[in-house]
Write a structure and sequence with these properties.
The protein folds into 2 domains: about 1-120, 3-Layer(aba) Sandwich (Rossmann fold), CATH 3.40.50.720; about 125-290 and about 320-335, Dihydrodipicolinate Reductase, domain 2, CATH 3.30.360. It is globular. It is of the alpha/beta class. About 35% of the residues lie in helices and about 30% in strands.
């Protein structure tokens, strides 16, 4: 039986408690938060869970095998370092940490104490995103031209990070995962409307190898909640709508028939002939709860004693890209070259 301690029970912490308690051979023993009211709510829902306002109570409990850190981003590094030194396996809710040096140190420390550390990029465990990755790898979309995402809503508004660190992180993680690549350069603009120095809206452009361009629009100051990604290839196109519980994936058999350009066209009807406007297919796929898959993976990595290197690398890559975005924001949208290997 793997016993879990949850540090932080704000927005995501209770979801981790619920999810781990659903899994076999594991249980949440302890939950920690500075807010006693939140702890009382947790105790009402999960009566067998111990609660505390001190995270050290979790670290000192020899029965706790692993901890989940779901606290404000600025606390992630110190909490993870302490947990590893106490011999705990660690899962960190996004963002992993706030700079690549901290990420590298934690990974080295985990190996030194023979424990694991895992960044919680939840969309890597989303069945829809995994299908898109497979389609891309198999060439079903053809050569990828470009892709874009929109992740907007009215709130929730965070105080520890801006909308880019909060929201765009997901899309950067998804794009890197699908393309199995990292951008060569980036540019970004962001604006602070509600409070100074904390961007509420961001527009980011990422330039990937093979001339693939990706754009991200994020905002927590928007009238509509949108969670969608569009990919355009020379064979097919797709749209992923994470808010569509029935048919989140749509494949469009649409493209420009380039060979038609070998002869001129003189009328609108002739022009329409160069466009293939085929069917839209909506495959019926069973989407498991991504958090459940992520938690299962964490337990599996604990049993194996290691996290795959590519998972750790993707975690560090996202942090490096976000730091590049910060640099572009400070320089009014200047293109920033990235040297990520």
């Amino acid at each position: 039986m793997i016993k879990i301690g949850i540090i932080g029970c704000g927005h995501w912490g209770p979801n981790f408690v619920r999810t781990f308690n659903k899994l076999k051979d594991t249980t949440v023993k302890y939950v920690c938060d500075l807010d006693s009211k939140r702890l009382r709510e947790i105790k009402k829902r999960f009566s067998s869970v111990f609660t505390s306002t001190s995270f050290r109570d979790i670290l000192k409990d020899s029965e706790i095998d692993a901890v989940v850190i779901a606290t404000p981003a600025v606390t992630h590094y110190q909490l993870a370092k302490e947990a590893l030194k106490f011999g705990k396996n660690v899962l960190i809710e996004k963002p992993f940490v706030l700079n690549p040096q901290e990420a590298n140190y934690l990974i080295r420390l985990a190996k030194r104490v023979n424990k694991i550390i895992m960044p919680g990029h939840i969309f890597e465990y989303h069945d829809g995103v995994r299908i898109i990755r497979n389609y891309t790898r198999e060439g079903k979309l053809g050569k990828i031209y470009y892709m874009y995402s929109r992740r907007t809503n009215l709130g929730p508004i965070r105080n520890d990070v801006n909308a880019i660190w909060d929201l765009a992180l997901h899309d950067i993680s998804i794009f890197n995962f699908i393309l199995d690549a990292v951008p060569l350069k980036i540019s970004a603009d962001g604006f602070s409307y509600l409070r100074s120095h904390i961007e509420d809206v961001g527009f980011i452009t990422l330039y990937y190898p093979q001339d693939i361009i990706a754009h991200i629009h994020v905002s927590w100051l928007d009238p509509r909640k949108i969670r969608e990604i569009v990919m355009v290839g020379d064979k097919k196109m797709l749209m992923f709508d994470d808010l569509d519980g029935n048919f989140p994936l749509k494949f469009y058999d649409k493209r420009v028939m380039k060979k038609k350009y070998e002869r001129p066209y003189y009328t609108f009807e002739e022009f329409k002939m160069i466009i293939k406007d085929g069917q839209v297919s909506t495959p019926l796929i069973k989407i498991r709860e991504p958090l459940l898959v992520e938690c299962e993976s964490f337990l599996e990595y604990i049993k194996k004693g290691r996290v795959p290197e590519e998972v750790l690398k993707r975690g560090i890559d996202v942090v490096k890209i976000l730091k590049g975005i910060e640099s572009s924001l400070k320089n009014k949208g200047k293109e920033i070259n990235l040297s990520i290997r």
